[in-house]
Amino acid sequence: MPIIVQKYGGSSVATTEKIKAIADRVLATKKQGNDVVVVVSAMGKTTNNLISLAQEISSNPNRREMDFLISTGEQVSSALLAIALQELGQDAISLTGWQAGMITENIPANARILSIHPSRVQQHLREGKVVVVTGFQGVTEFGKDGDIMTLGRGGSDTTAVALAAALKSKTCEIYTDVDGVYTTDPRMVPEARKLDKISYEAMIELAGVGAKVMHPRAVEIGSFYNVDIVVRNSHNENPGTLITKESATMEQKNRVSGIAYENEVAAISIAGVIDQPGVAAKIFSALAEVGINTDIIVQATNTSGHTDISFTIPKAEANRAKEILEKIGEEVKAEKVTVRNEIAKISIVGTGIKNHPSYAATMFKVLAEKNINIHMIGTSSIRITCVIDKEKTAEAVQLLHEAFELEKG
Amino acid sequence: MPIIVQKYGGSSVATTEKIKAIADRVLATKKQGNDVVVVVSAMGKTTNNLISLAQEISSNPNRREMDFLISTGEQVSSALLAIALQELGQDAISLTGWQAGMITENIPANARILSIHPSRVQQHLREGKVVVVTGFQGVTEFGKDGDIMTLGRGGSDTTAVALAAALKSKTCEIYTDVDGVYTTDPRMVPEARKLDKISYEAMIELAGVGAKVMHPRAVEIGSFYNVDIVVRNSHNENPGTLITKESATMEQKNRVSGIAYENEVAAISIAGVIDQPGVAAKIFSALAEVGINTDIIVQATNTSGHTDISFTIPKAEANRAKEILEKIGEEVKAEKVTVRNEIAKISIVGTGIKNHPSYAATMFKVLAEKNINIHMIGTSSIRITCVIDKEKTAEAVQLLHEAFELEKG
């Protein structure tokens, strides 16, 4: 019997009414002749509520204890979904991360999955049960010496896709509040079109630069183990977007898959540092040590032997980064550390962009024609990102969506 | 270093403010030179709230799923207490039942502890940590094949005393909202006196017939493993009541330790059944099968060869019991099944009662003098229980408290 793994996010299981609706959907999938494994997130705001309780006690609670605390959220929703399935007459069982055999690193709040031992999941499937697994969590080792770890951002998507891979399931369905992956944010561009299909590679890039629908981490696992991921709406029967291997069909179509934007970013410039080996390493190691992710790094050396280094970071980290950099700035004799908050990143993504310089040219030209100034540029082989003024975000996304004719299928 | 196990109930950890207050108390015990293990219940109404969620989905939710669900309550309070201790600078770690090595039977909602493997608890104590353990729960076996079980009524007390036994701790402190064990309910008899000491045996009997302060199950474990149990108030520094082995000192004192009452009971009489072997077995097996506890069983045979059987049960079970018994009544040719709801059980308990018939005589006389009719009588070697009209409960408790001079130390 084919195995389908379905993942439902926090808003899909926010109330007992919604959990009952999910149970109907799971049962329909089971009745179509599939073995079904369901991965759930915590109900609605549960995780935030648990974090608030901890913060009433400590401003900086221990991360191992936080994982012990917040992992209960998915345990609650899993049990309730299993009960809802049983109420429909479908045999079901809920399993925690440790019961489902999810072994992780010992890195609280941000553990990666090391291995999955799904024998118990498989056993329950053979018994005809729907298996409901807590998303977002695992354990460092089996038995009483194991500690509960959570997987960090995109954790439940990651649980689902990794479990699909371990079960050799061909399909992992990620249920959310939208119909699938769009060419860009439909709230910003009404003409945005839902994609029927997108390659793993393009999805990873899109997700990495602001498309919120899926975390790149889960897509990477899908890509590695060749699991088809379908992003679907939990409120309707629409077919959603298939994230899969790149195919010839994809190549023939429009080579830009989508346009993403992020406007919760800040740009930091360190001007006039001495141009000698190790300076960049010093700066970025210091930021990495405290877990600040940097992006779009640009370095240019002027004729006087001094260098300007600029990069973007999440806006929430701006103050913390500035403090750290001002200390390091003295060491590397920087002239000035500048933080610019009112900026946005706009990206075009598509596997077809590879080796086609015309895409970059078109993008720059479209922005220039409307006097949208480009502060920084960053690229990967299938992505071009421009940093612009935040107030121009909507206009830029709209212009690029039109220029690359993304409204057309 | 001596090990002290402390248990805090749901009302003691109902808010983050209360959890911080508990952390102060735990820290003080640690600073007095003890290794401290803390067992906690779920915060306030958490367990009831989780049960309500499940009942919104099913009127009869699966018990294994219910244990999976409600066991999260203690996990939350344990993590929060560990965080509160860390905030005070005290190294601490929370452990679930499975992490603390609590192995139970596979009987959801009412599992007994089979064995405890406290090596992980001991290791963390050696590291100087306070270990916070989730009460009320265990796991059927180590590793991913184990299922989470809850221990039923008195579960957190049982966790604490059993853990104290496994750790060879001499003392287990049970924190609650009252100063200790009283000669009777102080809300009913203002002269009720807090006991400094009571034997395991008398405590088990008292708890079995209505004293709510401790569950007999936990006291039985304490008795078996010789763990001193101290019942104390979590809001003050009063010394509480020591539950321990019976000693000569105890014998010299007043031989009645306390008076308990229960008025949520019903009496059932099955009149005129045929007097032949197997009839009583048939009746009580049928009730045991559906989990109805019977108490104070009285049987009398009349000259015509017919028998009347009477017994008490929890009032909440009265309707269910009546249905079952009416069916069986036909089989055993009973004349009538009567349920009497407006009754109460009044008990005097004390190790000194053993082999002293004068206690029973005094009890019956005191009640008779005030025209309080005794419907049924039940005894153990250290307890005498009378079933009387419910409306006479307060009067009877007051009379007996005076008659046995319990207000005197």
Describe the fold and architecture.
The structure is a homodimer of 409-residue chains. The two termini of chain A are 35 Å apart. Chain A has 2 domains: 3-176, Acetylglutamate kinase-like (Carbamate kinase), CATH 3.40.1160; 259-403, 2-Layer Sandwich (VC0802-like). In chain A, helix 12 (358-369) packs across helix 13 (393-403). Chain A has helices spanning 16-31, 46-57, 63-70, 72-87, 119-126, 155-166, 200-208, 216-225, 248-252, 279-289, 318-331, 358-369, 393-403, and strands spanning 3-8, 35-40, 92-95, 102-104, 113-116, 130-134, 137-139, 148-150, 171-176, 197-199, 228-233, 241-244, 258-274, 295-301, 306-314, 336-349, 376-380, 383-389. With 409 residues, chain A is α/β, with parallel strands linked by helices. Chain A is built from 13 helices and 18 strands. Chain A is 35% helix and 27% strand. Chain A binds chain B through residues 16, 19-20, 50, 53-54, 56-58, 61-62, 64-66, 68-69, 71-72, 75-76, 78-80, 82-84, 86-87, 93-94, 96, 98-101, 117, 119-120, 142-148, and chain B through 16, 19-20, 50, 53-54, 56-58, 61-62, 64-66, 68-69, 71-72, 75-76, 78-80, 82-84, 86-87, 93-94, 96, 98-101, 117, 119-120, 142-148.
